[in-house]
Amino acid sequence: xxxxxxIQEAKTHLSRLLEQVAAGERVVISKAGKPxxxxxxxxxxxxxxxxxxxxxxxxDHDLGEIDPEIQxxxxxxxDAAP
Length: 82
Fold this sequence. Notes:
By secondary structure, the chain is of the alpha+beta class. The chain has a domain at 2-39: YefM-like fold (3-Layer(aba) Sandwich), CATH 3.40.1620.10. It contains three helices and three strands, in the order βααββα. The chain has helices spanning 7-12, 14-22, 68-75; strands at residues 2-6, 26-31, 34-39. The chain has a three-stranded mixed beta sheet with strand order 1-2-3. The longest helix is centred in the first third of the chain and has 9 residues, at 14-22. The model has no long low-confidence stretch (mean pLDDT 86).
């Protein structure tokens, strides 16, 4: 079942509306007769670790090396005389 309320009613009766949402109702909050928000039950999304495990590959020796192109972008030509 869907309950439609205006913003003022939602502000006045928020606790009651949240209880109804917790009981499975859906609340639509409207402004000037146009729906702007839905109150629905919160469903936590589980965190999945290692989602890209085995899909990303890199060379250990690539880490920590200075990339000359990026060095040039930040500092200009470091070998040029001032």
